[in-house]
């Protein structure tokens, strides 16, 4: 993901109505614009469509034109890519810590970490 794509995702997620639209699409994948609009009493259909356009520009929403309808799906891939960028190292670290804690609580021998020289146990 290049910096411009990441900026578009963060800008799209900075808006509360856009996050609500993503919640709707997560709950009802493949719904049309009119269905999304029903969840908004405070803004009209045109405003909802503009928010959807921003979400599509950030690749957070995928749409398909079927006849006269525009069906929408939430695309979680950009959010997951951002999550992975900053958490992968920490996830591996904490997964290792939790695994060692599990072995200690079960009084089982802790497997030797091959990355560490000398292979300490526990």
UniProtKB/TrEMBL annotation:
Single Gene Ontology MF annotation: DNA-binding transcription factor activity
Gene3D superfamilies, A to Z: Winged helix-like DNA-binding domain superfamily/Winged helix DNA-binding domain
Natural source organism: Usitatibacter rugosus
Domain of life: Bacteria
Matches recorded under InterPro entries: ArsR-like_HTH, HTH_ArsR_DNA-bd_dom, WH-like_DNA-bd_sf, WH_DNA-bd_sf
Domain HTH arsR-type residues, every copy: 8-89
PANTHER family cross-referenced by the UniProt entry: TRANSCRIPTIONAL REGULATORY PROTEIN (PTHR38600)
Protein name as it appears in the record: HTH arsR-type domain-containing protein
């Amino acid at each position: 993901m290049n910096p411009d794509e990441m900026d578009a995702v963060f800008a799209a997620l900075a808006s509360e109505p856009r996050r609500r639209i993503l919640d709707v699409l997560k709950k009802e994948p493949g719904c049309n614009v009119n269905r999304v609009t029903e969840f908004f009493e405070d803004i009209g259909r045109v405003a909802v469509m503009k928010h959807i356009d921003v979400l599509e520009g950030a690749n957070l929403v995928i749409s398909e034109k079927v006849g006269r309808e525009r069906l929408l799906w939430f695309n979680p891939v950009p959010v997951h890519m951002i999550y992975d960028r900053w958490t992968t190292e920490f996830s591996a670290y904490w997964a290792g810590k939790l695994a060692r804690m599990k072995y200690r609580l079960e009084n089982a021998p802790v497997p030797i970490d091959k990355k560490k020289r000398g292979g300490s146990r526990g």
